[in-house]
Structure prediction request, 1380 residues.
Amino acid sequence: MKKIKVGIIGATGYAGVELVRLIATHPQAELAALSSVSYEGKKISEVYPNLKNICDYELENEDIVNKCDIIFTSLPHGLSEKFAKKCVEAGVKMIDLGADFRLDSADEYTRWYGKQYEEKALHDSAVYCIPELHRNNYKGQPIIGNPGCYPTSIALGLAPAMLDSLTVDNSIVIDSKSGVTGAGRGLADNTHYPNCNEAFAPYKVAAHRHTPEIEQTLSKLSGTKINVTFVPHLLPLNRGIVSTIYFNVKRKTIAQELHALYEQFYAKEKFVRVLKLGEVANLRNVKYSNYCDISVHYDDHTDRAVIVSTIDNMVKGAAGQAIQNMNLMFGLDEDCGLNFIPPAF
Amino acid sequence: MKKIKVGIIGATGYAGVELVRLIATHPQAELAALSSVSYEGKKISEVYPNLKNICDYELENEDIVNKCDIIFTSLPHGLSEKFAKKCVEAGVKMIDLGADFRLDSADEYTRWYGKQYEEKALHDSAVYCIPELHRNNYKGQPIIGNPGCYPTSIALGLAPAMLDSLTVDNSIVIDSKSGVTGAGRGLADNTHYPNCNEAFAPYKVAAHRHTPEIEQTLSKLSGTKINVTFVPHLLPLNRGIVSTIYFNVKRKTIAQELHALYEQFYAKEKFVRVLKLGEVANLRNVKYSNYCDISVHYDDHTDRAVIVSTIDNMVKGAAGQAIQNMNLMFGLDEDCGLNFIPPAF
Amino acid sequence: MKKIKVGIIGATGYAGVELVRLIATHPQAELAALSSVSYEGKKISEVYPNLKNICDYELENEDIVNKCDIIFTSLPHGLSEKFAKKCVEAGVKMIDLGADFRLDSADEYTRWYGKQYEEKALHDSAVYCIPELHRNNYKGQPIIGNPGCYPTSIALGLAPAMLDSLTVDNSIVIDSKSGVTGAGRGLADNTHYPNCNEAFAPYKVAAHRHTPEIEQTLSKLSGTKINVTFVPHLLPLNRGIVSTIYFNVKRKTIAQELHALYEQFYAKEKFVRVLKLGEVANLRNVKYSNYCDISVHYDDHTDRAVIVSTIDNMVKGAAGQAIQNMNLMFGLDEDCGLNFIPPAF
Amino acid sequence: MKKIKVGIIGATGYAGVELVRLIATHPQAELAALSSVSYEGKKISEVYPNLKNICDYELENEDIVNKCDIIFTSLPHGLSEKFAKKCVEAGVKMIDLGADFRLDSADEYTRWYGKQYEEKALHDSAVYCIPELHRNNYKGQPIIGNPGCYPTSIALGLAPAMLDSLTVDNSIVIDSKSGVTGAGRGLADNTHYPNCNEAFAPYKVAAHRHTPEIEQTLSKLSGTKINVTFVPHLLPLNRGIVSTIYFNVKRKTIAQELHALYEQFYAKEKFVRVLKLGEVANLRNVKYSNYCDISVHYDDHTDRAVIVSTIDNMVKGAAGQAIQNMNLMFGLDEDCGLNFIPPAF
Prediction:
């Protein structure tokens, strides 16, 4: 089979360069073009010296759509539509790692991102896809909206409970913690080393832009409008997200029953590992891999379930899941090129 | 005034050596004796070389009660009663930094710690004291049970709401995160550097021994039995606790009202700083100090309050609060010797 | 081709579990047996949950030699000879990641390790091998002594200069810094998180056991007895070694000439990347990979060269180089199974 | 005694805010005015929330010289002269924490900093002062050039050997490592958290601006022109410098003799602690304090001494030493307000 020609727009952002790394070892895909506004003309290995002698592609700032079978866009919100249009016109597939193709509701998009959907038709031909939950929604659409990092960890952590209508209305509290790569490559006071080393705090308390995406997924799963309280925190480490998810259960249950529900739901999913009852999910066990580890807990003195869901924000939360979606689009095995083993340390 | 003669039993544990550091600069107190089973005969500065030339006291393993006006015990649970007895008999005050004098209920103590209160009378003559909340309970008792680190951050974060009966029954969720010094000096797999660096996870999910202490305090404040879901996490940093506390509110409120309640409640408290609405508490701002910073947030789309409370687990969460309690016992200003300014980094 | 059957003795140590991870994706090798004294009967994924569903092999404590084509031993010094004997007798190849087959001189071994070479003949049939420097020394010997982590970074950093007889006698100073995984899995005070986080110091100053190995390699390269001052330091991070190497030059030179010497020497070596003049080697660019990055500097106001050499201590410094040696033994391309791309973060 | 009125120009830089913290508890000094160009009109506690309720001074951008008895300037190089002139004219003392009053040679200043000494007379009335080495040089000069962080650690680490003419010419190699606060408050790629966490590298190899300051001090101590190779590295931690210093010795010596030389030299110095032979200096033992810990080692197989010298770069390396110099200027005990005990963690 001829390898899939991959183009990355926004290749020097953190998700972009992670895509470069993962595509470079994908057995069925190859890098065809890398685009960057800021570093046009430089080699990507000059910007990221870890890639020296491995990927020395020159960064372009031209139209790379026609050189590719698929385009990954990894851009600030509001910039993906124009590339989507080009891709659709050229018959090139596209996966957007940004926020522009995640929300069904144009109003919600405007409310949270302050911009408009300019081309409504484009959004109708796009599908949001966490493969474990939505792969059946993929029916050849040209565009996939790749899920956000927090929403991926949360949707996977709540899906079995939502589908089982187990959660008490309005009882879901999500306390998430993310490594600093989640904030991206741009310099900022809160990611200056002495400011976030030996520091810890939440940010955008109950006001993070991933909230509508989380609620959209959960509402669809449960068939009813779900509101959640979502509070992200910045962890002093590079990679990984832990979402600790709390909800009250509608009917009397016990830990074993809850755990069995999760085990059964994910029994055939390679990338979701439901830990044994009594074990606790730790982000160190999924770092640098496409796994999502989930541990299930039950506080019987308050009748509240606690689910711990952890992913690598740059892999399952961004580039890895995007490749999983690419594999889905091209009819490859979903794990193709994604068999990274999380290191022990 | 003659300085208070201070003895520390368990001086080489983390809380113990932090007490040494703080007492060494206290204007009204002085170290009289340090006790350690493991390092008898060594200088404390041989065990902790940071103290070289500053505090070179020899560690004893004898009865130090009679040399002192007050004894701080910082020991594994179950070991403090015998020292308490000696202190009471000798007319020496005692502050226990361990768990043995925190719980009113002997049954709860047995349930969570697997041991008995051997001397019930001792516990009747002890008082549990977070000074900001309980200083009026101190009426000359010989023993103070110094609060735990998590419970301190949580009680201070919830007190205004509890006293105002604002919380919906059974809606309190507490997601706490602690630096590794909270696990103490003992070697363990989960505190081996490569295991907790670049790692993050909860532990003892809904099963931590601080739960009954938290519930005891909240129940007393609210006048009704309070159950909470409490999940602690281990943060990859040395010092500090952040508790993110969620609860539904009983009556319609708005962020401003909630914030005003907190500001008013702590208006005269030096060591509790209620941040302005919109600011977020960060443990970096309280490290190495006795401050508790609290930020107040309100998620109006779920009618849920979010309180962020942060302390230095070794200071306000242990040694600093113990000294605040010592000051209370001896009629000194509560902040005497505790005016440490948190460094910017 | 039938895959090489690999056995690992000491599989639950840090180098052992890293071998497991790397062998698990090697296209020409497969795990045949894992041995561990401490965890016999457990699955390796119970000890290292990152391996759950990926490698769930049970740990044995029996003779695994006969199940394998090659045995990797990763053991404390003094324990490898008995396995070497078994391997040689059974016609099974062996690579020792410990210290027992690195030193030619039995006296030096005794002096530094306090033990004897019991079976001298075994050592005669072993070869020490950093492939880039010693691959021609491999002539079918049954045993390879895999180099230590510090010595690998240092030998690669000094080889071009030594071969060119450029260094002034007795002028070599090596200041190395290693991440904490270098200290291994065992619990110790100096690797307890609060003791090594936000801390930094040298250890075993001019007295580290890697010194004779370093000097042996350098002496052979230069054809004269070389003594070095070697001071290792413990870095507060998980992985990686940086060796900053200083030496005076024998003849007048300039930075460009020195740099050209290095570039030429390593021109055909995939795993050694000589950076451009003006660039500085950083361990972040080689983490999780088999690369050694070297930058060349020259202080012309003291006529002293400064070479910065960095590797991942667990990959090129241990498991990766061991696999490179396995590939050499089995006539595979040296980079087979080792094409890990260092991540950008 | 009336308290010394202190003004800080550049109060929101890292050295500036550290000065604020230290002066705020100084028993004989008080903050009179804080100046900042970037944050004029804001309270310093809005910029550094750790200072909330402790120091809420408003930042000015006016002439604060006349309000003060002493001015600390903490500014990028080239900006201090104009304030020095004002201070001298107004009879106000000044301590410059920047680089403008450290070098005797105007040529060297121009060579390394690319600027001119505009007012030569000002420099004649300034004195460079590490109190332990130069206090006798202070004879009432109006301006003190406060030493750089690296040079302080190095000069203290080498002074006994230099005065004793023990070092072989041109044999001094200095490998220093600094925490990230040393790079200051400004945002930069190399201090973006994901770029320096789990990373390590030297920078400005043999080309750092502190080199002429180091050589100036050592040359004066030894009475002969000293050149050194100086290579700084960036450590992934907030505070502290470790300088590992290597030199060949001129005459046959032994470790004990070398150690005795150091012990004797610093016998009366409170802030320099020479560790026992066999101990190793670690920056964790001096953090947040004005101490310099020095350990002495000797590599007898190369006849090379190794000195490890560690300070907190923000205290003894900047604000603390500046206050020590202020105390000297005002005839106070040198340790006045500087008795901070380094915490154990």
User: Anything to note?
Assistant: The interface with chain A takes residues 14, 17-18, 21, 24-25, 48-55, 181, 198, 238-239, 270, 273, 275, 279, 282, 284-289, 293, 314, 339, 341-345 of chain C (CB under 8 Å). Chain C has eleven helices and 14 strands.
